[in-house]
Amino acid sequence: MNPDLKLLNSLAQPFNGDLYYGVNPLSAALEARLLDYDRANRLMRISFAPPARYRGAEHRIGRAAAAIMLDFPVGVVGLTVLDADQAPASTRFDLLFIASSDARRFIATGWVIGRHGNTVFTRGELHDEHGTLCATAQSTLSAVPTVRPG
Amino acid sequence: MGFESSADLQLLGGRVLRTDRDAATAELEFDTPADLVQGAGAVQGGAIGAMLEATMSIAASLALRDNQRCETSALNVAFLRGAPKGLYRAHARVDRQGGKLAFAQARLVDREDRLVATAGATLTITAAQ
Q1: Does B73 touch chain A (CB under 8 A)?
Q2: Which has the closest alpha carbon to B5: A97, A132, A24?
């Protein structure tokens, strides 16, 4: 199946724990929900509601939670420019941690800034539900043949 | 900032194996929890980066005075091979630590000692609250 269709089939529904290929316990734990998947503008947004174990003192998210939430869109958004039989694999992931937050929900946005052959360059931002910028990311993706589990 | 690395260690299934204050190094082991695994069966890249960040943060904290704390401001991760769920070891070293900034690097290896990922970090040193 075209990865775009698989992604949309899994994300555009009420959350069922299936964010990407097959069952995904990580997206389930974070209550990931797709907000936008804009192939024309090569952009996607996902909301997360990280539970208590992703948070530290005063219920604030840690760096691990910020990195994990941002990694979703800056990686998956690569699908918008890849062929149907390709999937994005991260080779570099650079983060700036700007502010923590105790918000209940976070929104991670990723967009493609360019493609050079089998390499895709993306950027992303993590905001809390009040609009505070918590972290930014830049990622380098490599197009690999689509592999599905099972 | 207020990001909490100790909570991150629990989240990542990490424990400290050894630290060396004089050498400014730290070695941690991570037994990746099932919920950090993506649908394709690999540990998520963000979680890999977080393991390296936590290790560098501990290494940098070894030389701090009682009234100081350090927090990672920038993290750069290179993924060298896929990382299926399993046991990983991270080793971090502080290259330079001044009064306001520290620079560290880290490596993550799998059970067979194969290099899985490398990282560098810039940490900001502030007065403890």
Answers
A1: yes
A2: A97
Q: Name the residue with tokens 């949309």.
A: A8
Contact B79 A91 (CB under 8 A): yes
For the stretch A32-57, pLDDT in tens is: 888 888 899 999 999 999 999 999 88
Phi first, then psi: what are they for B102, rounded to 5°?
-135, 150
- What is the three-class DSSP state of A41? coil
- How far apart, in whole angstroms, are the C-alpha atoms of residue A105 and residue A33? 11
Query: Residue B126: what are its φ and ψ, rounded to 5°?
Result: -130, 170
| Element at A29 (helix H, strand E) | helix A25-29
> Is B49–A62 a contact, with Cβ atoms under 8 angstroms apart?
no
Put simply, whether A18 touches B (Cβ < 8 Å) is: yes
**Angle formed at CA A24 by CA A23 and CA A30, multiple of 5 degrees:** 140
Q: What ipTM does this complex have?
A: 0.92
Full-model pTM:
0.90
Torsion of CA A54, A121, B71, B2, to 10 degrees: -40
Whether residue B83 contacts residue B43, with contact meaning beta carbons closer than 8 Å, is answered with yes
B40/A147 Cβ within 8 A: yes
CA atoms within 13 A on the CB side of B43: 27
